[in-house]
Amino acid sequence: MTRNEEAAPPAPYRPGYEVVAEQILNLIAELELRPGDRMPTEVELAARMGSSRTVVREAVKILSAIGRVRAHKGRGLYVSDDESMLGASRWGGFFLPADLGHVYMLFEFRRVQETAAGRLAAGNATPVELRAIEAAAETCRYGHLSGQSALFDRGDNDFHLCVATASHNRFLVAAVREARRLQRQTNIIGMSGATGGHASDAIEEHAAIYRAIRDGDPDEAARAAAVHLDNTLEDYRREIQRRLFGQ
Predict the structure, then answer these.
(1) Which of 15, 54, 110, 160 would you label with 130, given CA atoms 20 to 30 Å apart?
(2) Vertex 91, ends 86 and 97: CA angle to 5°?
(3) H or E segment and range at residue 69
(4) CB under 8 Å to 182, separation ≥6 — which residues?
(5) Could you tell me the CA-to-CA distances from 126 to 35, 86, 121, 164, 168 in Å, in that order?
(6) 41-88 per-position pLDDT tens digit
(7) How many CB atoms lie within 10 A of CB 31?
C-alpha cells in the first residue's frame, strides 16, 4: 500500500445470527421454495452456512418472529404460508430484507400506496380518525424525545395505518399493513433494529401529513407523504450500506 492509498474501513460488526438469517432468506430464493415448502434441516443449514446449529437456531427464531419461517417440532422447518387479504406471504417469499434493490422496490410500492392513502384521507377522514392520526404522531414524537425506540416504532406504525384507515379503502389498509411488515424485516435483518438518523425529521413529516389531512388538502397530503417516503428510503439506504459495506 502506497502512502497515498487509504485502507478501506472495516465493515461494521453484525451478529452471526443476523448474517445467517439473511443467508437463509437468500437460500430460500435460490432454491425457489414456495410458501408451505419444507426447508433444509438445522443441521443441513449449519453445514451450508458454515455456522453452528446454535447460531442457525437463533436465526430461525428471528425469521419465525417476522413471519418468514415456521418451525414445527418434530417435523422441521417450512417457508411460512400465512395468508392475508392480499396474499402477502407470496410477497415475502421473494423479498430479501438486506437487498437494496428489493428495498427500493418496496419503497416505490409504499410511495404509491401512501400518497393515495393520504390523498383519500384528506377527503374522507372523520373527526375520530383525525384524532387517531394525531395521537399516533404524538406517540411517535414522544418515543423519539424520550429515547424509547419501541414506542417510536409503535407510534410510527400506528400513524401510517391510521392514515390508511382514514382513506376508507380496505385494500389500501391491507397493502400498507403488509408493506410495513416487510419493511420491519429490513429494519431487523438489514439494520439490526436501528431507527437510523431520520427520526427527528420523520416527526415533522408526520405533522405535515396530519395537517394536510386535517385541512382537507388532498394534493398537499399526497405531496407530504411522498416527501416522507423518499426521505425514509434515503435513510434506509445509508444505514444498510453502512452496516453491510462500511460506506
Answers:
(1) 110
(2) 140
(3) strand 69-72
(4) 88, 91, 92, 95, 97, 106
(5) 39, 26, 9, 13, 10
(6) 999 999 998 999 999 999 888 888 777 888 888 888 988 865 554 444
(7) 12
**pLDDT attached to residue 161:** 94
Residue for grid cell 446449529: 53
Lowest average pLDDT, out of 191-195, 208-212, 239-243, goes to 191-195
Instruction: State the distance between the two ends of the chain, measured CA to CA, in whole angstroms.
Output: 20
| 220 CB-near residues (< 8 Å, 6+ apart) | 122, 212
Please state, in angstroms and rounded to a whole number, the distance separating the CA atoms of residues 151 and 156.
Answer: 8
DSSP H or E run through 172: helix 170-185
Q: Among candidates 222, 122, 133, 113, which has minimal Cα distance to 177?
A: 113
In whole angstroms, give the CA distance from residue 233 to residue 198. Answer: 10
- Residue pair 79/37 in contact by the 8 Å Cβ criterion: yes
168-171 contacts, C-beta under 8 A, 24 or more apart = 168/120, 168/124, 169/116, 169/117, 169/120, 170/85, 171/85, 171/86
The pTM score is 0.66
Q: Which three cell numbers stand for residue 102?
A: 428489493
The CA-based angle 152-123-135, given to 5 degrees, is 25
**191 with 235: CB under 8 angstroms?**
no
Q: Tell me how far apart the alpha carbons of residues 215 and 196 are, in angstroms, rounded to a whole number.
A: 30
For residue 109, what is its C-alpha cell?
410500492
Helix then strand count (H, E) for the chain reads 10, 2
